Amino acid sequence: MIRTRLKEIVDDCFRAGVRENQWSDAAADKYTVEVPKHENQGDFSTNMALVLAGIEKKNPREIAAQVVERLKNVQELIERVEIAGPGFVNVTIKESVWQQLLKEIDDQQESYGRSDFGGNRRVMVEFVSANPTGPLSIGHGRQAILGDGIARLLEATGHDVYREYYYNDAGRQMRVLGESVRARYLELIGRDHEFPEDGYQGEYIYDIARKLVETEDQSLADCESVDPFKQAAERTIFEDISTTLKRMGITFDNYYNEQSLYENGHVDSVIKELTDKGLVYEKDGATWFKTTELGQEKDRVIIKSSGEPTYRLPDIAYHREKFRRNFDWLVDIFGSDHIATVPDVRAGVEALGYDSSKITVVLHQFVTLMRDGKQVKMSTRKANFITVDELLDEVGVDAARFFFMMRKPDSQLEFDLDLATKESQENPVYYVQYAHARVCSIVRQAVEKGVALPTTADADLSLLVEPEEVGLLKQMGSFPTLIESCAMDLEPYRVIFYLMELAGLFHSYYNKHKVISDDSALSRSRLCLISGLRTVFGNGLKLVGLSAPEKM
RNA sequence: GCGCCCGUAGCUCAGCUGGAUAGAGCAACGGACUUCUAAUCCGUAGGUCGCACGUUCGAAUCGUGCCGGGCGUACCA
Length: 552
Fold this sequence. Notes:
By secondary structure, this protein is α/β, with parallel strands linked by helices. Helix content is 50%, strand content 13%. It is built from 20 helices and 15 strands. The chain has a five-stranded parallel sheet. Strands 1-2-4-3 form a four-stranded antiparallel sheet. Strands 8-9-10 form a three-stranded antiparallel sheet. The longest helix is centred in the C-terminal third of the chain and has 24 residues, at 520-543. The relative contact order is 0.11. It binds one RNA strand through helix 2, strand 9, strand 10, helix 12 and helix 16.
């Protein structure tokens, strides 16, 4: 990676300055090497002189001059070094360095952009985790794509990723679900029934009940327990959910259920341990967790006076199990409505002797669905919501993935159905895919015209001197760095922005320059560039789970 | 009330953890297909970065206080 190599050179320069008492080493690790905003500011820029000047109380431009003197003598990589603005040192890289990048891409192919910097660390990504009370909603869709994007990034950077889906099958929600199914079942067989006040009203409840009538006939009419209804609902709904997820290309290594935490005694043992540590007490018939002793504002109920635990308790037990299962890093993807559980879980595992800093929580904001310029209001219980399945029917998998991933998690996501449905033009999904298809088309043309596809060895890469070509090379060269930083920050949306930018550069280039021409030497060089682009577009698209069509 | 997130072009959003002249896409307007796919390109226009102080060589970015929106603040998950 070119930036990394340059950073090493700049670091050497810094250390040499320290050795010769030009400056102290107080600025070590404080300065950066970055890509500047404007084109006339070189390929990379370091703020070392500015940082040093702040510490040493010296004139930044004077220090910059010293930095320049040192870098000037470096033969490797560097074409030109200059001082700019308040004291930036701008470095221009030799064109040949960019051109040689194509060899690297050619060698690495599918693995260009991948790295092993994760060191095979075992990381669990927990996401979706929707309770099986109904079809996946739009909000779950965002989470599914976000979590999957994060998982893919971590895989690409050498982490050992385990995807897990956690669901609550023990609580009140599922009981209400079972009661809702029972009511519909009784209704269908013509018995008296009372629909629960806060029951689930969706049409899918009838479907489940209808199935029960088919398989069980009237045998459940006088059944005391809701369990058969609950189980039937859970089974059917889960089938639906996993079908939907598969449609989006998402699979899990494991589904973990709350019930098992009770069956295996994990919940009890959490209570016991916390009690032993004096962090639990009884009040008003409920059991409380002394979170105030762990830095929070108030204590929290972990077992209700009814005897049922609150969500906190199994959540803590579950996270302790994650630690016990020997993961090095726990990534939780939650909707922002679940934010309240985060401090409780952290406090809980911390109290149980685990290092909560190994948990990273990615919270994402809500999705608002827009149709005809107006917001579509939704509620799961009332069942007037658009499911992920319906969305996929309407806009397709690629558009759904693209739109869900396009925004940073902190922002509310406005999903414009009209825009995503549009088959063309304004729809940004096609912009990137079209770039890939175009690249593939050029390759096809070359083959048809009998132009042998060159390897980087038998092309003169020094012919790639057009500004658009060098610009493309630079963008292609930053791909591996980008993937690493996206993975580290758990931000798949930036991959989308990168690809859009690369596509923009390519489309401009395409409109201005001909790849296959009478000049066979030039054609060969440009075909190498095109072939590199195909690799980067293909790798990038696949990395975020989008298809890379060869024709459109 | 308190906690977290958001506020940047008419709309939807970037802005790489404090840098150099504020960036895209869409919408608007004007151009480019006998030439590797026009699902594309080129150009024009569009801004008190919510407001006000503060921190410093330098702030959209950091701090404080307001304003506006979202989500929490359950013996719901």
